[in-house]
Amino acid sequence: MNMWKKSLLSLIISASMLVSAAPAWAAPQQPVLKINNEQVKYAANAPVVEQGTTMVPLRTTLEAMNVKLSGVQDGTIHVVVDGKQITVKGKTKSIKGVTYAPIRIIGEAAGYEVRWDQKSRTVLLLSKAAKEGARGFMWEVEHNGNTVYLVGSIHVADDSFFPLREEFEEAFAEADYLGVEIDISKAADEKQQQLITNMSMYQDGTTLKDHVSKETYEQLTAILKQFKLETNAMDAFKPWVVESTLSSLQWMAAGYEADAGIDLHFIQRAIERKLPIVELESYQSQLGMFDNFSKELQEKNLKNTLDNFNVLDDSMELMADMWKTGDDQRLLEFTDSMAVDPEYNKAMLIDRNIGMADKIEGYLNSGKKEEYFVVVGAAHYLGEHGIIKLLQDKGYNVIRK
């Protein structure tokens, strides 16, 4: 495995690079409808709950379900599903001139499974394909009445990753806590912003040009020109920041977004459910790790990214396919490729895995009979130094789901 792929591996290892891309969400005040985890946007008329029944604007909802409305007459709704005419018996109601109908009745008639999440006041419609979903990576550990689900994340994704398979949804629905590397939905406070500045930028009057070779700097300026950026745009930043920024430019150009990353996906849903979020690491520990890379390693990683910049998006496609198919062997190969550089491997995986495994063991021994849904970079789980092996060595039975 070529070492340049390590820059892409960061997308399944560390979340701190995405801090500036993470928005915050507020819990919904009105009932929300999601079709295969995609929220239906209502321009004016929103769903309402009446006597325990969620009523939705009929025409807008059917359009979101790709179902054609033929007509409504005397409590009978006529729709066309996959070319077939279907008659749905259900009570309709006019609200401000808009016809409303019970979502469960029309959803089930269209072939969806209908679920209700009381905490977030969300109706979730799942198609048959959605219930199968992307395989991804998930393991289960139980001890003393406590359950921890271990989910392997990829920190950037697109719509093709969703919906996730039913096992993810069921485990998350029962969770008492969401565990993540760091909660990247929280806006950095003044202290954290200063920390980020101090670690990512030179504070001694020098610039990037003083810390990398002439060849590396010239390669960088050529790529910045491709993106119509000033050639000195990255001068204030350290090589590890420049490397992650270049990778970000490429995966964004390929259509992948941090907003769709698996960890941020569940953070958003935890906020909607008002589910407590616990952090296994911190901004300081993650950023400090990158900042403590030796000067030689930082330039080496940057040079590898520059040398292979035009094929980074192709490798991202391979990693996306690996995640969606849940290919353990390919994930292990990616993880093992990091062992080529002992300094990089120890910092990015070995040391961090020990810390996260210790936190997870604490959840398993809480004595509160609770369930944790833990989402961290997928590359942390497999291999001789992976979280799975560390937990097994401690005597826990870890089951692939």
Please outline what is shown here.
This protein has helices at residues 6-9, 58-64, 103-109, 128-132, 166-174, 190-200, 214-226, 239-253, 262-273, 283-291, 295-307, 312-325, 328-337, 342-364, 387-393, and strands spanning 32-35, 38-39, 48-50, 53-57, 68-73, 76-81, 84-89, 93-95, 98-102, 113-117, 122-126, 137-143, 146-153, 177-180, 277-279, 371-377, 398-400. With 401 residues, it is an alpha+beta fold. It has a six-stranded mixed beta sheet, with helices on both faces.
**Helix content class:** 25-40%
| Distance, first to last CA | 28 Å
Shape estimate: globular
Strand fraction equals: 15-25%
Low-confidence blocks of residues:
1-8, 19-28
Compute the number of structural domains.
Answer: 2
Which secondary-structure class do the elements indicate? Answer: alpha+beta
Mean pLDDT: 85
Keywords for this entry:
401 residues; 15 helices; alpha+beta; 40% helix
